[in-house]
Amino acid sequence: MPLPARERLATRGAAALSEAELLALALRPAGARTPPEAAASALLKRYGGLARVLDTRVEEVASVPGVGARGAAQLAVARELARRAIEEQMRQRDSLESPAAVRDYLRLALGPLGHEVFWVAFLDARNRVLAAEELFRGTLTQTSVYPREVVKRALAHNAASVILAHNHPSGVPEPSFQDQALTRALTEALALVDIRVVDHFIVAPGASLSFAERGLL
Known about the structure:
By secondary structure, the chain is α+β, with helices and mostly antiparallel strands. It has two domains: about 5-80, DNA polymerase, domain 1; about 95-215, 3-Layer(aba) Sandwich (Cytidine Deaminase, domain 2), CATH 3.40.140. Helices cover about 50% and strands about 15% of the residues. The protein has helices spanning about 5-10, 20-25, 35-45, 50-55, 60, 70-90, 100-110, 145-155, 175-190, 210-215, and strands at about 115-125, 130-135, 160-165, 195-205, 205-210. A hairpin with a 2-residue loop joins β4 (about 195-205) and β5 (about 205-210). α2 packs across α3. It is elongated. The relative contact order is 0.10.
C-alpha cells in the first residue's frame, strides 16, 4: 500500500510527490468541506498545470471549490517565496548564464497581475542583478513608459546593462508595434550612457517571449 503523501514527504522529500500532492499539502487545511486533494485536482484541471495555477490571480484561484481565500493566500505565499529565492540567486550569479531563472522570476512576479507593469532589472558588469524594480504601472491593456526615467534609474544603480520586461495580462506574449518601437527607443537612450539592453521579455499567463531570442534586439 502506497505511503500517504505526508509520510513520503518526511522520508523521501518533496521531489517524491506529484504536483497534485504538493498542491494538496499547500492547501491543507484551507478547504473546510472539500478535501484538499479534490481542490488540488480541480485547480490543475481548470488551469492545465502547476505553472498556470501559480500564474493566476489570487481572486480567481479563490473561486475554485475547496480553495477559498485562505487557500489562495497560501499559494500566493508559496509563489512569493519562490520568487524571492530566484531573485536571490540572480543577485549572486550571472543572469545571462541562467535565462530560465530570469523567465521563472518574471513569470512569478508578473504573471498573476491583472494590470500592465513595466519592470527593469539592473545588472552589473558581471551580469548579476543589482536591483529589480517596477518602474511604471498601467491598466489592463497599456502602460506609459518614459525612457528618461529608465535612464535615470539605471544611472542611479550604476548599471552596466538592463533586462526589460512587461506583461500582457489579457493576451498572448506577442510584441506589438508599440512594444518594438519602445524597445528601440529605450535601447538608443540607454546606449547614449553606455548601458546595454540585454533583453526585453513579455509575460502573459503561462507563457513568455524574449526579444533577444526572436532577433528583435
